[in-house]
Specification:
Elements: E1 2-12, H1 16-25, E2 33-36, H2 45-48, H3 53-56, H4 103-113, H5 120-130, E3 131-133, E4 147-149, H6 157-168, E5 184-187, E6 192-193, E7 196-197, H7 200-208, E8 214-217, E9 220-230, E10 233-243, E11 246-258, H8 261-271, E12 274-275, H9 277-282, E13 289-290, E14 302-309, H10 316-319, H11 323-336, E15 348-352, E16 363-368, E17 384-391, E18 399-401, E19 412-414, H12 421-438, E20 449-452, H13 460-470, E21 471-473, E22 502-503, E23 505-507, H14 522-540
Helix pairs in contact: 1-7, 1-14, 5-14, 12-13
Length: about 550
Amino acid sequence: MESAGQFDYIIIGAGTAGCVLANRLTQDKDVEVLLVEAGGRDDYVWIHIPVGYLHCIDNPRTDWLYRTEPDAGLGGRSLIYPRGKVLGGSSSINGMIYMRGQAGDYDQWAEMCGDPGWRWDEVLPLFKKSEDHYRGAGDFHGSGGEWRVEKQRLSWQILDAFRDAAEQVGIPKVEDFNRGDNLGSSYFEVNQKRGIRWNTAKAFLRPASRRPNLTIMTGCHVEKLMIEQGDNGAVCKGVIFTGGGTQWRAEAVRETLLAAGAVGSPQILQLSGIGAAQQLQQAGVKPLADLPGVGANLQDHLQLRMVFKVTGAKTLNTMASNWFGKMRIGLEYALFQSGPMSMAPSQLGAFAKSHPDLARPNLQYHVQPLSLERFGEPLHTFPAFTASVCNLRPTSRGHVRIASADSYAPPKITPMYLSTPEDRKVAAAALGLTRAIAAAPALKKYAPEEFKPGVHYKTEDDLAEAAGAIGTTIFHPVGTCRMGKIGEAGTVVDSQLRVANVSRLRVVDASVMPTITSGNTNSPTIMIAEKAAQLIRENGK
């Protein structure tokens, strides 16, 4: 085993959180930082062209290629479960949507972990710190930060009509989803710069990489953390990883920061002997710290993709149905970085309530001027739009567990979608609301005809069944190393993200979310990393 050296901090994972940590921690010139990443450089052309997510997801060059276990809530189906394996992590392959969630999400976190520092009013400055918003600085947005936020460079009449129809059923038009209450509809704002994807590798890591106190090692697979038993309990001394055919050992003098994501972080903890003792023993791993919450509490947004055929409307299905159309689309992007190739996977968003008595929205729409049978397959040949709706705050809880002590074996991912009566009820109501929008006067001229799931699903039980038939992940796994009060059942990290019963170890990524945010999860993960960096730097002085 070769020594990679001794560092003040070791960051495991150069994804969304890891890139932010690397940038912020190396601002202290007397601090030496090692960043270890399993994937390669973000130099694949399709990472940077927005529509290129189609080529990055389920591609071994950029994706871990995870699959879920067969899910009873989805009729026994197994889903692809994309997670970025490249510099920038999932910010290099995601939908680029800039979304913070709702103020109530963070106020709930603060209550659950007993720390008012996680309240909305406290984390809003952290969102603003890293932001470079096209509107400029204001009460809710920042300017001059690393994380660029822009308007999309396109519009579609069919999406405008959907927005009008949503207004007719009580979903108001708004201009900004990111002020703490995202009720309403608008075109999504995106993390792009002039029509090109803006990932965290460009935003945060590229500037930091010029600093002499940052060492970046790509193509390095983490096998486990180095956990030793000290006088005061377990201590993390660093990490063992393999890269370039060599096994390496790196030591962290101050802390090891696990930023491998909601799948990778619990997997690495479990491989290192940190998790539910009985499960670890069954997998052939010696338990060193009994933390049953590791890998539990998995939450995700299940999207229900309703497809409606239309007439008299321009959609991507027909635009891209021949080589001439595809050439026009390519030429528009080449000349102007606009048009369909600059599209985020979803263009129009809407937030609504599945029941009027709810205090805040619990549904999110991602609406697209296209349709297909499933991800990776060709577009339909008929004009259509897709209205995807998800339950923002599911009560179903799944888990991530290692199957063996082999670090190269993928973990078993069991989301447990639609496993509670509440989630099935919300799913049925969401499909019913989508039908109401499609039937509103503003869409009448396009004669929408439900293609998926089909009008034969009528009752609440029918619609819950339909949700299981068409539901799929929208790629927002969180919660598997949840933050909470130490000693409370299920808690893995405290409010400063320190792992319970193991010193010199923190988890910094979406896995620490005690409950999922009410919207897309990438930018909240940046905020978590900003918060962690602030805590670490304050503690180190």
